[in-house]
Amino acid sequence: MRNRVRQFVDYIAYERGLSENTCLAYELDLNSFISFLEDEGRAGSMQEVQRRDIADYLENKRRAGLKVASRRRHLFAIKTFFAFLTAERIITENCSEMLVSPEVGRVLPKALSEGDIETLLRSVSGRSAHELRDRSMLELFYACGLRVSELASLRLSDIKVDERLVKCLGKGGKKRVVQQGRSAHDALLQYLDFGRERFATGNTAQQGLYLTQRGTPFTRQGIFKMLGNRAMDALMRGHVHPHMLRHSFATHLLANGAPVRVIQELLGHADISTTQIYTHVNDKQLKSIHQRFHPRH
Questions:
Q1: What is the pLDDT of residues 211-226, one digit of tens each?
Q2: Is 147 a catalytic residue?
Q3: 74, 133, 135, 246: the active-site residue
Q4: Is 297 a catalytic residue?
C-alpha cells in the first residue's frame, strides 16, 4: 500500500507540478492513514479499503485531539489519492467519494460590553479637533456597525445630516444606508462644525469625511492605530480593534430584541447565515446567566 502512496506522490510532483512541501504533506497524511490500516489489521490492499475504514481513521484522529482543519486536510488527501487510484484503475470503486469533510466551527466574534463601549467613548471627551474627530469616528463605528474600510472611504456626500443617515459602500460594491443615532449624529455635527476644517485647512477639493493631520483621508491602518491609542487611553484591557465595534453593534442590537433579519440589513450581510453567528453569542450569554442564577444548576 505504501508503494501506491509513493506512486501517487510521484504523479502529483511530476504530472501536476505540485511543490515539494505540498507533496510531502500529502505523503505524511497518507502514510498516517496506511499506518492506521496496518495497526488495526483493516486491509491488505487499497482495493480492500472500505468507507468505514476512512471514517474510523478520522474519528481516531478526532479523539487524539486533531483539529477540524487538520482532519479536513487528511480527508482531502485521502479523497485525492483514491480518485487517482480509480483513474488509474488500481481500484474499481472509490469508497471515499461520498464522505463529507468535518464542519469547521465558526469562531464567535469578540464584542465589547455596553459598559466598555461607554468607557471608550467617555474617554474621548475633549474639545480639540483631534478629540472631536476621533469621538465622531468611534460613535459612527458603533452606531452604524461599519467595517473599517467603509469608515475610511466615507465622503462628505455620504452623510445625510438632516435625515441622520449614512450611505456606505460595502463588500462587492453593495450599497446600504444606515441610521446614525442621536449620539453619533451629535458627535458628527460637532466634528463638521468645529473640527474638520482644522485638518482640511481650506482644501475644498478634499471630500473625505475623516481627515488625518496631513489633510488626507484615513487609511485602514490609521484607523486601527487611532482606536488602539484611544483604547489604551481608556485603560481598556486586551487588544481592541475596529471590527470589535462592529461585532458589539450587532451583539447589543440582538440582546435588546432586534430581529436577525434587520441586523443582516444593517450590517450589509448578503447571507443571513453570516449574521446568525450573533445568535450563538447571545446563546452564550443566556447560558452564562443560567449558570449564575439558576438554583439547581
A1: 999 999 999 999 999 9
A2: yes
A3: 246
A4: no
